[in-house]
Amino acid sequence: MDRVHGGDIYPFGGDILDFSINTNPLGIRHEIRAAAISAIGDMDKYPDRSQGKLKAAIGKREGVKSEYIICGNGASELICDMVSALKPKKALLLSPSFTEYEVAVDVVETEKEYYLLKEEDNFDVREDILDCIREDTDIFFLCNPNNPTGRIIEKELLMKILERCREKGTFLVIDESFMEFSEKYKECTMIPAVNEYDNLAVLKSFTKMYSFPGLRLGYGFLRDPEVMARLEKVRPPWAVSNIAESAGVAACSLSGHPKNTRSFIKREKNKFYLQLSYFEDKGIRYIGSEADFILFTAPDVANKNLYELLLKRNILIRRCSDFRGLNGSWYRISINDENSNRKLMNALKEIYGE
């Protein structure tokens, strides 16, 4: 499988408006930047292998014991570490969903089974997912809200999935990298369940909400000490740099930042929904999202696809043809700052008509 991701602006020389990346449109806070700059003075020291300060800050913020926390060089690294530690023989994956789950299990030659999300259901996970969790399902990766669809699984169904996984001996990994962008964050997060379930890991990322993908910092929660010990064995000894740890500690203190971000994203998403709905007669259809991005399908114009047409206007969006279950007519756009969003909406008007 090709490893395609958003944010690959380098082939275009950097002079491009990037809607392919899913980080906070409000940008990096000055407190985080200042903490990272200050930590440069510790470049001559090895990082703290235990990430003690960072785990204490995360634990206080999330209400989880420090010994249940693991940190790494981004959530993607933790996904790979989880697979390397557990060595599952069979994995259950959503389709479409984040491609790194599939990449990770392919490394250890895990058999894969897919739960196909249907366009007619708005790509929602339905209760029939429970029938796919069987005795031979060793690991199940869930992205909630899902990438690239932006759809969220409600708590009631999540708990049924978790109970079914425990019954069948399946380890459930829930990737909540985009959860804090959702208005349903408090009611749908599964972090509290880590305190009660040994077959659960919840992963999160500082990259998305706090907008420092260049530093790479992710973290996860799991209770089972045996799984934690196996994870520590497969990981590099210094998984988090001094600079990334300092940035993460600073991010944990920004209590009002997620709330302000959610308000901004809700307002800007509604503008995009209105704009995209104007072009329904041109074949454009969007999927309502609980994340900071929108998935939509759009037809070609004059034998050119929307990606190419926007690229000519120095606007980069995410083509979704590499996601299993989506074809070349599907695209994902992030919510950006107001001025950038306006430029994209004006470009859509030029392409598809007023």
CATH architecture label name of the largest domain: 3-Layer(aba) Sandwich
CATH homologous superfamily descriptor of the largest domain: Type I PLP-dependent aspartate aminotransferase-like (Major domain)
What is the makeup of the main sheet? 7 strands, mixed
Mean of all residue-level pLDDT scores:
94
Question: What is the top-level CATH class of the largest domain?
Answer: Alpha Beta
N-to-C CA distance: 39 Å
Helix-strand string: EHHEHEHEEHEHEHEHHHEEHEEEH
Low-confidence stretches: none
Quick recap of the structure?
The protein is α/β, with parallel strands linked by helices.
Q: What labels describe this entry?
A:
2 domains; Aspartate Aminotransferase, domain 2; four-stranded antiparallel β-sheet; Aspartate Aminotransferase, domain 1; 354 residues; alpha/beta; seven-stranded mixed β-sheet
